[in-house]
Amino acid sequence: MKKEILYAGLFCLGVLGVLSTHSTNAQSDPSGKKRITDTYAITNATVFAAPGQKGTKATVLIKNGLILDIGSKLSLPKEAKTIEGDSLYIYPGFIAGASDVGVTKPKDPDRPDDFVSSNPPDEIAGVTPWRSAMDQFSIKDGKVDELRKAGFTIAQIKPEGGMLAGKTAVILLGNEHSTNLLKENAALVASFNGSRGMYPATAVGVMAKFREVYDNAKLTEERSQKYTTVSGLKRPEITPTYSAMQEVISGQIPVLFSASTELEIRRAISLQKEKGFKLILTDLEEYETVLDAIKASGAHVLVKLEIPDDKAIKAQKDEASEEATQLYARVKKAYDDALAQTAKLEKAGIPFAFTTVGVKSKDIMKSLQVMIENGLPEQAALAALTTNPASILGLSKVAGTIEKGKMANLILSTDSLFAKDSQIKHMVVDGYIYDYETKAKKKSSKEGKDGDSIKIEGNWDYTSESPAGSSGGILSIKKEGSEYTGTITYDDPSGSDKATSPIKNVTLEEGTLSFSFDVNANGMQITVDVSGEVSEGSYDATMTVGEFGSFPFKGTLTPTLIANN
Question: Mean pLDDT for the chain?
Answer without folding.
Answer: 86
